[in-house]
């Protein structure tokens, strides 16, 4: 009883630990991954999934993955799945005669802490396999048990592939390790052979699939990339743990029950605490910013970056985008380490994150065609060929383009999902061209649509693409700011001054950053006080610049940073800048 | 002793009773589930009853099958009644001979396959009258009837096409599929997830013969694959004397030759919203390939520097080689002004030679033409016309046109076209049906349409390829590309193609 109580407590601890582990370390990662699954409430969707092996398992996976939309969804789902895995495996080990402690049964589940998965397809598959195995081994009658397992191996391939491998393996183990299995061991071997034969037969009869997809389906991992080694490790951990547990079933490591329980608890707690504390996803900041961007929480990105700094290029792209959205680009651009063009837009966007970023940046700049194109490629290149966030962008871009029928198609698809249904329904009204034209955000976007056709790809040549946008609409603030940001980061002051001249002629005011750059230009590149005077700069800024120039040689780097670190001329002087 | 025996006996009896009760419960549960399912199915079988409102207009249905001409061997034309909150639909299809078929459904009308085929078989060459009713908020509305004209000309039983996401520079899952047009069965001939996620395209058949086909794979396991019954040949078609691998193919009716273009293809993306992308050639030529000798025949090829030649095809009698041609120019600078004409040169199959000069069949004075396809009876040339260029799928103005070859008369097939793109087309073996790709539904995804061409060259109203669930096209994220009608099922195994692709080294073709 004490032991049972302790096992339950440990399971509960594992549940809480898994919840915290995912919540703290992979929270934003799963938010990111949620975009790549879109459960649809249509018959067609169900039928399409059922056409391939493992369809029902995938249906269930995508159904529960809807919870990833919620902040606590992914931690909860994974905690449930992994705890269930540990519990079910523990029951299996008990049925095999091993008086094994719960912590040993947790090992396969704990491997998912070490090798996190992008979707819960694999844990779902394992849980189903364990449940079906347990349902079989409680059948006492040997013939019935054999029939059950042979049938379930075939059925589970069709519905829950590749669960049939684990079922066959565990069944064989059970028959080998238990007295009840005497006489059935050879049937267990037949079952294992059947598990491998069924995909081969199915390939020639029901499905047309590559060997890999026939055996492992497309759903466990991205089908275009090799299967990770962790897959084999997780699968192997089940028989290895079972055999080990069986081998030591008679041994007593610690005679004292209390001592044993304490040691186990400490070990488990220690392992979990270590993983929770020291796991860090390398792209955590980028995924966090992606999440904020989806919610249009641009200021949150800026606030976080100011507090924590910038860790990687993708985070910087989102930050610059956030600065543009919040009108702070001129004010705060050089508060963060700028790395050049690839900090503004990903180069030749091909990866998942890069395509999203490219689409977002292009959209902000007003290059609707590019935004649409990256969104389109982002959708079609995703593992399950859905990307809800980019589909929304497709709807928006087609509405701006006036391609209402194309927008309508994506609206219909989004309406079939739970999370995007309401948003899609709201867009339906915009399928009326008059209503659409009157809608503010559409009108704003249409105002800045490109006029001059050109074949420039923003991700290959951002400055050239932005130059066209500025030429078409000088008042396209985001494009202008991005253009000037590029020129200033690369210190291309003559080109920058061309646009400053245009600003001056239009009677526009210059933000602080531009004024500082103008001062630098007229000091370092082109001394012409008369022309400089036409820019009507803030005299305080001019004076401060003069002081900088005057004291430059006498200031130490630290003093210079302290006194002038917030200026453009400090950047120009002390920061080598990116190479073009 | 008696008491334990009695106790034991009664406990055994109790156990049996419990088991029997359990069995009964299970049986009841199964029966209940069965009854619920049956009830649910039957609940969609509702006929109009009560107070019925009669509408004067024809129903708005999707796909639009009103007043279309259909082959007698086509699969049932299930359709959806458009409108919000439709609870049930009903359709009655009456033949001229009095036969009646009923279709029922909740969201869409579904016809029984056997009964449908029986109805059409019995009404070849005749008219069917379809009356549709819809139930909404408890009230039935019966719409004005429309007609279906059942042609006595059958359509080829299978359609082969590529499914691909529509456009841009990347692909994901691409496959060449065959669809049984008499049912809804669709099977992959080959899919790129079996051969390294490469690109596959340009499938082509010899005179609609499913046993003789070819297609290309690009990137991983790249090559041209020629299939003759179960023999699969993998070829490397790039030579030192040619500018590229073989591209757009067409078979000689004898099956001994293939003509293809050679193209250096580029693309760029527009920044203005009126256009999306442009695909163009910087160079192109036309060649004829001898399949048995594995040789590109120089004397049957049109390889020039001062002209762009592309989209070749043979006449059904094999005596003429048709292709599109224009003067070469700097691309992409001239992309908006380049226009292709359709010309033909005589082809001698015995010697494998052609003779210049070429006759102009369709001029490029005003428009640009592509995809010249001669009907199998040799009477008509169908092509795609657009304002400029030779990749019309991205041009909204792309339409199908048809010329009568005997006198060069332009036929009026305006009923086939829409305000959006009509592009690739293929003929059925009896020259009475054309399958073509169209973006008329949403301007983005290409779907397959069929239209009837009668003996006088008149085109009937086209109809969309039927699907079991008409809504499936709404959710599909693939375009139908290069629809080719074939006379039967393509029997080559996808796994055989996979094996050749992965294991065989390609044979190098020669340039002679």
Fold blueprint:
The complex is a heterodimer of chains A (580) and B (512).
Chain A: H1 2-25, H2 27-34, H3 43-50, H4 55-65, H5 73-95, H6 102-105, H7 107-114, H8 121-137, H9 142-160, H10 163-177, H11 185-205, H12 211-216, H13 229-247, H14 257-278, H15 284-294, H16 298-308, H17 313-325, H18 329-332, H19 352-365, H20 368-380, H21 388-401, H22 404-415, H23 421-428, H24 433-438, H25 440-447, H26 462-472, H27 477-489, H28 493-505, H29 512-525, H30 529-533, H31 539-551, H32 557-564, H33 568-574
Chain B: H1 2-43, E1 52-54, E2 61-62, E3 68-71, E4 79-81, E5 88-95, E6 100-105, E7 108-109, H2 113-121, E8 127-136, E9 139-142, E10 146-151, E11 158-164, E12 175-180, E13 186-191, E14 199-206, E15 209-218, E16 223-228, E17 231-236, E18 246-251, E19 257-269, E20 277-290, E21 295-302, E22 307-314, E23 320-327, E24 341-348, E25 353-354, E26 359-362, E27 368-374, E28 380-386, E29 399-404, E30 409-411, E31 422-427, E32 433-438, E33 447-452, E34 463-464, H3 472-475, E35 479-486, H4 494-503, E36 507-508, E37 510-511
Question: What does this protein look like?
Answer:
The complex is a heterodimer of chains A (580) and B (512). By secondary structure, chain A is mainly α. Chain A is built from 33 helices and no strands. Chain A is elongated, with a radius of gyration of 30 Å. Chain A starts with a helix and ends in a 6-residue tail after the last helix. The model of chain A has no long low-confidence stretch (mean pLDDT 92). Chain B is mainly beta and 512 residues long. Chain B has two domains: 52-151, Immunoglobulins (Immunoglobulin-like, Sandwich); 158-511, TolB, C-terminal domain (Neuraminidase, 6 Propeller). Helix content of chain B is 13%, strand content 44%. The N and C termini of chain B lie far apart (106 Å). At the A-B interface, helix 3, helix 20 and helix 22 of A face strand 13, helix 3 and helix 4 of B.
């Amino acid at each position: 009883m004490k032991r049972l109580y302790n096992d339950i407590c440990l399971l509960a601890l594992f549940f809480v630990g898994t919840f915290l582990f995912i919540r703290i370390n992979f929270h934003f990662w799963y938010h990111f991954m949620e975009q790549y699954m879109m459960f649809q409430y249509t018959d067609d969707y169900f039928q399409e999934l059922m056409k391939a092996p493992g369809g029902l398992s995938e249906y269930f996976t995508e159904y529960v993955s809807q919870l990833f939309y919620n902040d606590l969804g992914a931690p909860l789902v994974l905690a449930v799945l992994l705890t269930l895995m540990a519990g079910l495996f523990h029951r299996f080990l008990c049925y095999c005669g091993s008086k094994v402690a719960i912590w040993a049964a947790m090992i396969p589940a704990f491997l998912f802490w070490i090798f996190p998965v992008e979707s819960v397809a694999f844990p779902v598959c394992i849980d189903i396999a364990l449940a079906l195995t347990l349902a079989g081994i409680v059948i006492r009658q040997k013939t019935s048990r054999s029939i059950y397992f042979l049938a379930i191996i075939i059925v589970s391939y069709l519905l829950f592939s590749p669960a049939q491998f684990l079922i066959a393996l565990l069944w064989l183990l059970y028959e080998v390790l238990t007295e009840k299995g005497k006489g059935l061991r050879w049937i267990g071997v037949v079952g294992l052979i059947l598990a491998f034969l069924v995909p081969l037969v199915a390939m020639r009869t029901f499905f047309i699939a590559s060997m890999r997809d026939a055996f492992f389906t497309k759903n466990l991992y991205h089908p275009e990339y090799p299967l990770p080694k962790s897959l084999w490790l997780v699968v192997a951990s089940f028989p290895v743990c079972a055999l080990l547990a069986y081998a030591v079933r008679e041994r007593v490591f610690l005679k004292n029950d209390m001592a044993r329980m304490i040691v186990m608890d400490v070990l488990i707690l220690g392992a979990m605490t270590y993983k929770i504390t020291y796991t860090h996803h390398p792209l955590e900041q980028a995924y966090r910013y992606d999440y904020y961007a989806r919610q249009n929480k641009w200021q949150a990105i800026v606030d976080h970056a100011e507090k924590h700094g910038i860790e990687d290029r993708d985070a910087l792209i989102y930050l610059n985008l956030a600065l543009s959205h919040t009108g702070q680009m001129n004010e705060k651009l050089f508060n963060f380490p700028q790395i050049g063009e690839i900090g503004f837009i990903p180069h030749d966007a091909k990866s998942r994150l890069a395509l999203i970023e490219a689409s977002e940046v292009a959209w902000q700049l007003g290059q609707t065609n590019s935004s649409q194109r990256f969104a389109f490629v982002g959708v079609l290149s995703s593992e399950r060929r859905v990307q809800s966030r980019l589909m929304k962008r497709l709807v928006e871009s087609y509405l701006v383009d006036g391609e209402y029928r194309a927008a309508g198609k994506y609206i219909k698809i989004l309406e079939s999902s739970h999370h995007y249904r309401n948003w899609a329904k709201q867009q339906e009204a915009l399928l009326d061209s008059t209503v659409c034209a009157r809608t503010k955000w559409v009108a704003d976007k249409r105002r800045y649509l490109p006029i001059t056709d050109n074949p420039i790809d923003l991700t290959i040549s951002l400055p050239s693409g932005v130059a066209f946008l500025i030429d078409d609409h000088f008042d396209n603030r985001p494009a202008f700011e991005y253009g000037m940001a590029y020129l200033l980061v690369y210190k291309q002051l003559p080109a920058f001054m061309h646009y400053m001249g245009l600003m001056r002629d239009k009677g526009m005011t210059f933000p602080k950053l531009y004024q500082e750059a103008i001062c630098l230009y007229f000091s370092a590149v082109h001394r012409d006080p008369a022309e400089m005077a036409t820019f009507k700069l803030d005299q305080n800024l001019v004076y401060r610049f003069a002081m900088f120039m005057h004291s430059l040689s006498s200031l130490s780097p630290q003093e210079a940073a302290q006194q002038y670190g917030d200026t453009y001329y400090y950047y120009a002087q002390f920061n080598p800048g990116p190479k073009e | 002793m008696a008491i334990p025996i009695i106790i034991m006996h009664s406990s055994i009896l109790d156990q049996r009773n419990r088991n029997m009760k359990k069995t009964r419960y299970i049986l009841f549960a199964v029966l209940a589930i069965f009854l619920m399912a049956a009830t649910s199915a039957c609940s969609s079988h509702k006929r109009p009853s009560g107070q019925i409102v009669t509408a004067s207009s024809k129903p708005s249905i999707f796909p639009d099958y009103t007043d279309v001409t259909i082959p007698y061997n086509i699969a049932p034309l299930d359709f959806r009644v458009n409108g919000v909150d439709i609870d049930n639909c009903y359709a009655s299809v009456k033949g001229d001979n009095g036969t009646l078929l009923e279709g029922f459904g909740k969201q869409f009308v579904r016809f029984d396959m056997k009964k449908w085929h029986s109805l059409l078989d019995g009404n070849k060459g005749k008219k069917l009258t379809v009356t549709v009713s819809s139930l909404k908020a408890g009230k039935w509305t019966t719409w004005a009837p429309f007609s279906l004209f059942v042609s006595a000309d059958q359509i080829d039983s299978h359609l082969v096409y590529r499914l691909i996401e529509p456009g841009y520079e990347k692909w994901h899952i691409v496959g060449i599929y065959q669809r049984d047009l008499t049912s809804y069965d669709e099977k992959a001939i080959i899919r790129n997830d079996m051969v390294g996620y490469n690109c596959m395209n340009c499938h082509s058949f010899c005179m609609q013969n499913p046993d003789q086909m070819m297609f290309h794979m690009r990137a991983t396991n790249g090559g041209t694959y020629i299939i003759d019954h179960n023999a699969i040949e993998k070829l490397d078609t790039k030579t030192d004397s040619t500018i590229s691998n073989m591209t757009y193919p067409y078979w000689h009716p004898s099956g001994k030759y293939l003509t293809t273009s050679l193209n250096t293809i580029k693309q760029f993306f527009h920044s203005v919203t009126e256009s999306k992308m442009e695909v163009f050639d910087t160079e192109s030529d036309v060649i004829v390939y001898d399949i048995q000798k594995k040789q590109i025949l120089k004397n049957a090829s049109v390889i020039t520097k001062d002209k762009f030649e592309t989209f070749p095809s043979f006449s059904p009698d094999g005596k003429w080689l048709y292709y599109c041609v224009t003067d070469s120019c700097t691309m992409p600078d001239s992309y908006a002004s380049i226009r292709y004409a359709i010309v033909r040169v005589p082809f001698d199959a015995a010697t494998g030679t052609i003779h210049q000069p070429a006759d102009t069949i369709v001029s490029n004075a005003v428009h640009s033409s592509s995809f010249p396809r001669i009907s199998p009876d040799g009477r008509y040339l169908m092509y795609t016309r657009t304002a400029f260029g030779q990749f019309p799928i991205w041009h909204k103005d792309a339409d199908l046109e048809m010329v009568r070859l005997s006198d060069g008369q332009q036929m009026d097939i305006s009923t086939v076209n829409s305000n959006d793109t009509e592009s690739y087309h293929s003929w059925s073996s009896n020259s009475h049906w054309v399958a073509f790709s169209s973006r008329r539904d949403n301007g983005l995804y290409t779907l397959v349409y069929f239209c009837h061409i009668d003996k006088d060259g008149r085109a009937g109203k086209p109809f969309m390829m039927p699907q079991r669930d008409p809504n499936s096209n709404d959710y599909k994220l693939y375009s139908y590309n290069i629809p080719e009608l074939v006379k039967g099922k393509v029997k080559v195994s996808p796994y055989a193609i996979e094996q050749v692709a992965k294991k065989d080294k390609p044979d190098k073709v020669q340039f002679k």
